[in-house]
Specification:
Elements (H helix, E strand, L loop, with lengths): L13 H40 L5 H4 L7 H12 L17 H21 L12 H23 L21 H19 L3 H21 L3 H19 L8 H7 L2 H21 L14 H20 L10 H10 L6 H5 L7 H26 L8 E4 L6 E7 L2 E6 L14 E5 L6
Antiparallel strand pairs: 1-2, 2-3, 3-4
Helix pairs in contact: 3-5, 4-6, 5-6, 6-7, 6-8, 7-8, 8-10, 8-14, 9-14, 10-11, 10-14
Length: 434
């Protein structure tokens, strides 16, 4: 057999080149399959974690997409009649207040907010009465408020539109409308108490409680939960004004689990971003079509990093939790190349200790009502004692004074509002409240 001619200089054999190309392609395919398998593993782990927090259901199973029910639509009409806009903006088919009604409510809106916020700071049961302007406005809209209470009593409970399946593009209802309505309801309840009509005040407070529970149960998003949290805080001064505990309220206050609701809201934010990263649609930010996989991947990777942080949060001591320091610590652990994860890293961590503080405020109200009834029944002075609070590591201290009992915590939390609500109260024997 004649010898094979040598290959020309600078031209490697074709078979060797083809093998290298095929090997490189095979490695890319293996890397792609490995990456896809790893992502599926992470997705299963995230889903299992969220299901565990929701009693076995997924977010979309627990909170399926729904439309406004008839009660919500009726509330929009009744709210609009007294100047409260309860409908989402730029949505056809919804009812908004007439300009005159909106102006009248807008004129007292800031005064109403400041009045209720001021009463949150009372530590002895002395609550500032509303201004004549607030009283006059309340009298003018009281028939409308009564119509709203009647409609809510008829049922069914309001169900607002919800579409968590849209991910970050979910459209939120106008939850500020129910907040404005709650402020008027609580103003009305306080005025009825001042007039000596405790039963009427109790009925209004019950409407406030059920409306807030319906809203909080309807949607796990952080915006909804923060509004519900704000309403719970607004209810406390009114509750502390009652000479006797309204039926069922001390137990309701003790059952509040606001920290768990806020943690669920954190998980819902993570779910929404994960959902957006998984949908076959353009990612937020106006990326060109050829680059779409990149923002989807970055969003997914950011949640892969944030989700364990959320699950680890309850292991921390909420008493000494510093939200800003925590955010710096977690951001420092994210690689600098992960621009998306660093830019979308949450800044809402202070709402967790805020929810714990609100639980303490509600628990203090329950203790105030309990102690007020004990003193009214002629109970003897209590020796110095303490009882555990809802927040691990903090206890309520009872101090006996002549004709009064002072309730306060034996410590404090690092978290403080811009206008800190005191966690102490003086319950006086036989004193009128208002």
């Amino acid at each position: 057999m004649p010898p094979r001619p040598p290959a020309l200089p600078g031209r490697p054999p074709r078979r060797g080149c083809l093998r290298r190309i095929l090997a490189a392609a095979g490695l890319l395919v293996l890397a792609f399959l490995a990456l896809k398998s790893w992502r599926a593993f992470v997705d299963r782990r995230l889903d299992a974690s969220w299901r565990q927090s929701l009693g076995g259901a997924s977010f979309l199973e627990r909170y399926p997409d729904v439309q406004d029910n008839a009660t919500v639509r009726d509330l929009e009409k009744l709210g609009a009649a007294i100047g409260i806009d309860m409908a989402p903006a730029d949505t056809p088919g919804h009812v908004h207040p007439a300009p005159g009604a909106a102006r009248r409510f807008g004129a007292i809106q800031e005064r109403l907010k400041n009045f209720l916020s001021t009463n949150e700071l009372s530590t002895d049961g002395t609550f500032k009465p509303p201004s004549p302007e607030l009283v006059a406005f309340l009298e003018s809209v009281r028939p409308g408020l009564d119509a709203i209470r009647t409609r809510l009593a008829e049922g069914p409970p309001p169900v607002w539109a919800r579409n968590l399946s849209a991910g970050l593009e979910t459209r939120l209802p106008n939850y500020l409308g129910p907040l404005m309505l709650q402020r008027l309801l609580l103003l009305d309840a306080g005025q009825r108490l001042r007039a000596g009509h405790a039963n009427e005040a109790t009925e209004i407070l019950e409407t406030s409680g059920r409306l807030n529970e319906a809203m909080a149960d309807n949607n796990p998003t952080l915006a909804c939960q923060l509004i519900a949290l704000a309403v719970i805080r607004l209810q406390q001064p009114v509750l502390r004004s009652f000479p006797r505990a309204p039926a069922g309220w001390p137990e309701r206050l003790r059952r509040l689990d606001l920290q768990s609701r806020i943690l669920r809201a954190f998980r819902c934010v993570a779910f929404s971003i994960h959902r957006t990263a998984s949908l076959d649609r353009p990612a937020p930010g106006g990326w060109p079509g050829w680059a779409e996989p990149f923002p989807h991947w970055m969003l997914w990777d950011s949640i892969r990093r944030v989700a364990p942080v959320i699950e680890d949060l309850p292991k921390r001591d909420v008493r000494v939790f510093d939200a800003k320091a925590f955010e710096r610590e977690q951001k420092a652990a994210i690689p600098r190349w992960q621009i998306t994860a660093r830019s979308v890293f949450p800044d809402y961590w202070d709402t967790w200790p805020r929810s714990a503080h609100s639980e303490l405020e509600a628990e203090l109200t329950a203790l105030i009502l309990e102690e007020r009834e004990r003193l009214a029944a002629g109970g003897p002075p209590l020796p110095f004692h303490q009882r555990p609070s809802r927040v691990k590591g903090l206890s309520w201290i009872y101090e006996d004074l002549p004709g009064a009992t002072v309730l306060h915590l034996d410590g404090d939390m690092v978290y403080q509002d811009q206008r800190p609500v005191p966690l102490r109260f003086t319950v006086r024997r036989g004193a009128s409240v208002g």
